[in-house]
Design goal:
- The complex is a heterodimer of chains A (about 650) and B (about 160).
- Chain A has about 650 residues and is of the alpha+beta class.
- Chain A folds into four domains: about 160 residues, no CATH class; about 200 residues, Up-down Bundle (Four Helix Bundle (Hemerythrin (Met), subunit A)); about 140 residues, no CATH class; about 100 residues.
- Chain A has 21 helices and ten strands.
- In chain A, strands 2, 3, 4, 5, 6 and 7 form a six-stranded antiparallel β-sheet that branches. A four-stranded antiparallel β-sheet of chain A has the order 1-10-9-8, with no helix packed on it.
- Chain A is globular, with a radius of gyration of 27 Å.
- Chain B is mainly alpha-helical.
- Chain B has six helices and no strands.
- In chain B, α2 crosses α3 and α3 packs across α4.
- The longest helix of chain B has about 35 residues.
- Chain B starts with 6 loop residues before the first helix and ends with a helix.
- The relative contact order of chain B is 0.08.
- The chains are: A alpha+beta (about 650), B mainly alpha (about 160).
- Chains A and B meet through α8, α9, α10, α11 and α13 of A and α1 and α5 of B.
């Protein structure tokens, strides 16, 4: 019964969407406050129903209800509890349910804060959000029902794909979805603003926190996925420029651009047309990602969505929302007037530069990902666009971007002094040169690693020049400095921290050039030199886990005769799926990692072993966590400030003095 | 979007009899300079049975065969270009992870430049139009109502 209740809740949620699609929208267009008041409670109800539905599926997994097809295909009664839970979204149907859960969650969150914005804008945005939610609910109900039962339940399930039986599955998709789907709120607000023709600095103020939330989770979600790949996939890579990864990178690039352009819109009432367009594009890229991954267009890389009906359905959703919002945009764009005026050398100018490069890199990834499909459709010629292409086109775009970050942070609004900014960066440049020299001396080749590491140091130090200048403005007395530091707006700290985080990630990427790799056959007792370390294979052990058999190698890492760590890389064989996975042995030493994989056991008893020493590699992910925290600081600040915006007594009060309409 | 990183590996695992991860110890050439070149070339070549993995990363038997072919040619004294030509002649351009510049791939390669150029042009036009408007209208003088409001604010202080 519980499973059917879950299914029924999903249908009810869809019915509520039908109400929400029409009633508040109509109310906002006719100025009927009663109709508009429907929006918030209905959004909360939608969330409650979808959550109930999600809970029902989770319950089916927890009790291993093998009369449900989805549970049979993806679970097993012996599976550890955490994978029973994360297995809920470890498949197409369940992950769609997580997707709509997140959609309705954001709707509910906006509904809770709706009192702080004009009721017509909130009502319209919630209505648009329900259009999106409704489309995906219909998709689930018609093509991907997770609650389907089977007539003759088997005794045992087929188990979750072993590669997915990892804490990574519990963490990565929910975080990533918060990011992808968070962009839907920005989209809904953009559409609502277009419908009402009210596009001004105030709008940017309401929307920026949501964009920031989406960006934070997208950042951390992508990064956690990358770490997961790094430790499971077994060859030490963390980014492969796979279409599926690109599908997540594109919304991130667009969201990063949006975050910055919305800042200009909020502070200076400028770049309005562009910001609205970006808000639409960012979510469109999210939808495109969903389409690419689930449609089977990229059948070759994708393992589950092989039902062409699903592809056509998502394509229809994609065309409807992108087409609809762009038409609305085209209809309104003439009536939009740009606000604040600024000189090319100014904070605004720097942010325009940022947007130019981010948009170009986003377009490059988009074209690179879709080009082979398009070319094959047009001419039948098959080509590959892989990592060498992306590295060659992406890096030249990101170098000027990183160079510009600290300069942009030091430019004043409206008209900046670039010479002054560069002068204030002398210290950062000096630090970069010193760091570069030290690294060149200590680690040597490749030159590119030294240069990029220097660039990273410049970005990290440069990020704090502005805040540091303010902290010491009253002199070097520690008490005064502390008072000034905590007196600074949190958003200023947030921006400094997030940019420094980008620099930290860059440092980690630069350092990959100093990595050492060894590929050898080893028997117990053998030693291998690995950078500064000597690694010994002590012995090989066979163990039995709950649903697998494991071959583990015990290895010891020594530096100058002193043991610095022990590692147990292993291979697991899952009998239910007759599949083997490799678990890398990872040992973090300072900021670097020793990464050992045993891909093969040979017939003579020796092991094929791949060993890596990757200095500073953890900085890649630590940087993203710092970026996430920076976003959090900024958000904490915003919440206070956004709270000041009161609900206007009459719906059409002009809040901003600028000529917005 | 889910199984983000793993999908293409799944495919490889399903095709390969057992995971034998990428370069195996037995394949490595004795000459480190040649081996280095072999690795550099392997990164540019696609494993044809598992999408979007280079033969350097892939476990598939075919990738292993290709790695051996590359090494054989290098040992035979081929230059890097000759090795690439040898492989392309047999497997087609599909094997190149960095597509060569042709009529068909022109658009792909110039995309970054075109977008960058178009963006710059757009910014320039928008900025010039804006500054012209400012020059023509000048800084608009305050209206009577604005002046009153301003005085009120100043007096209020």
């Amino acid at each position: 019964m519980i499973v059917e209740t879950g299914h029924y809740a999903l249908v009810l949620a869809f019915a509520l969407c039908l109400v929400q699609m029409v009633v508040p929208l109509w109310g906002s267009l006719t100025g009927d406050r009663t109709l508009m008041a429907v929006a918030a409670p209905v959004s909360l109800m939608q969330f409650a129903l979808v959550a109930l539905s999600f809970a029902a599926l989770t319950y089916a997994y927890l009790v291993s209800d093998f009369s449900v097809l989805n549970v049979i295909e993806n679970s097993h009664s012996q599976k550890p509890l955490i994978y029973k839970i994360s297995g809920v979204w470890g498949n197409h149907e369940g992950s769609m349910l997580l997707w709509v859960l997140t959609l309705s969650l954001f709707g509910a969150l906006v509904a809770l804060r709706a009192k702080r914005m004009p009721e017509d804008l909130a009502a319209t945005a919630l209505s648009i959000q329900s259009w999106v939610l409704g489309a995906f609910l219909l998709f689930i109900l018609l093509t991907s029902n997770p609650f389907a039962r089977v007539g003759a339940p088997p005794m045992e399930g087929r188990d979750l794909n072993p590669l997915l039986q990892d804490p990574g599955l519990a963490i990565h998709p929910p975080l990533l979805y918060l990011g992808y789907v968070g962009l839907s709120i920005t989209f809904s607000f953009a559409a609502a603003a277009l419908i009402h023709g009210r596009i001004d600095a105030q709008w940017a103020r309401w929307v920026r926190p949501w964009t920031l939330i989406a960006w934070m989770f997208l950042t951390i979600g992508i990064s956690m996925g990358s770490y997961w790949a790094y430790y499971t996939l077994g060859w030490g890579g963390f980014w492969f420029w796979d279409p599926v990864e690109n599908a997540s990178l594109m919304p991130w690039l667009a969201a990063t651009a949006l975050l910055h352009s919305a800042l200009v819109m909020e502070k200076r009432d400028a770049l309005k047309i562009w910001t609205i367009l970006l808000a639409i594009l960012a979510f469109s890229l999210s939808l495109l990602g969903a389409f690419l991954v689930r449609s089977g267009v990229l059948t070759s890389v994708h393992s589950f969505a092989n039902d062409p009906d699903r592809g056509v359905f998502i394509l229809a959703i994609l065309v409807f929302f992108i087409g609809g919002s762009l038409s609305l945009f085209a209809f309104r764009v003439q009536s939009l007037k740009q606000g604040g005026i600024f000189a090319p050398i100014s904070r605004e100018g720097a942010l325009v530069f940022n947007n130019l490069l981010l948009t170009t890199s986003c377009a490059t990834v988009l074209v690179g990902t879709l080009y082979p499909l398009a070319l094959e459709a047009a001419t039948g010629a098959k080509i590959s666009v892989g990592p060498p292409f992306f590295n060659l086109t992406f890096v030249p775009l990101f170098v000027p971007l990183f160079l510009a970050i600290p300069i942009g942070q030091l430019l004043a609004w409206k008209r900046g002094d670039i010479l002054g900014a560069v002068q204030r960066l002398t210290f950062a440049v000096g630090m970069a040169v010193v760091a570069g020299l030290i690294l060149a001396f200590a680690r040597g080749e490749p030159v590119l690693s030294v240069l990029f590491a220097g660039l990273a140091v410049y970005v990290i130090v440069g990020a704090f020049i502005e805040t540091w200048g303010r902290v010491i403005a009253g002199g070097y007395s520690p008490v005064l400095m502390w008072r000034r530091a905590i007196g600074l707006p949190l958003s200023q700290w947030g921006s400094a921290i997030a940019h420094a985080g980008a620099g930290v990630t860059l440092f980690g990427l630069a350092a990959t050039g100093w990595g050492v790799e060894r590929i050898v056959g080893m028997k117990p007792g053998d030693n291998v030199n690995l950078g500064p370390y000597i690694v010994t294979l002590e012995d090989v052990e066979r163990r039995k886990g709950p649903n697998y058999v494991e071959t583990a190698a015990h290895m010891t890492i020594r530096e100058g005769g002193v043991v610095v760590g022990k590692l147990d890389p292993s291979r697991k064989f899952y009998a239910h799926r007759s599949m083997t996975t490799t678990d890398a042995g990872l040992r973090t030493i300072e900021l670097g990692q020793v990464h050992i994989v045993i891909p093969e056991q040979n017939s003579d008893g020796s092991l094929d072993v791949r060993l890596y020493w990757k200095p500073y590699v953890t900085l890649i992910w630590i940087g993203s966590i710092i970026m996430f925290l920076g976003g959090g600081f900024s958000l904490a600040d915003r919440r206070l400030r956004v709270g000041y915006a009161r609900r206007p007594r009459e719906p059409k009060v002009q809040t901003a003095p600028a000529p917005a309409e | 979007m889910k199984k983000l990183w793993l999908v293409f590996v799944l495919l490889c695992l399903s095709l390969a009899p057992g995971p034998a991860c990428a370069v195996q110890p037995g394949e490595i050439l004795a000459d480190p300079a040649l081996e280095q070149r072999a690795r550099e070339l392997s990164v540019e070549l696609r494993c044809l049975v598992c999408q979007n993995q280079s033969i350097d990363d892939s476990n598939a038997p075919l990738a292993r065969d290709l790695r051996l072919v590359v090494r054989e040619r290098l040992v035979a004294g081929d230059t890097n270009d000759q090795v690439m030509r040898y492989v392309v002649d047999r497997y087609g351009e599909f094997i190149l992870l960095r597509p060569p510049l042709r009529m068909g791939t022109l658009l792909l390669w110039i995309t970054p430049l075109v977008v960058l150029g178009a963006g710059l042009a757009w910014i320039l036009v928008a900025w010039r139009r804006r500054s012209r408007i400012t020059v023509e209208t000048g800084a608009a003088p305050l209206t009577e109502a604005e002046r009153m409001a301003l005085e009120k604010i100043i007096e209020g202080r």
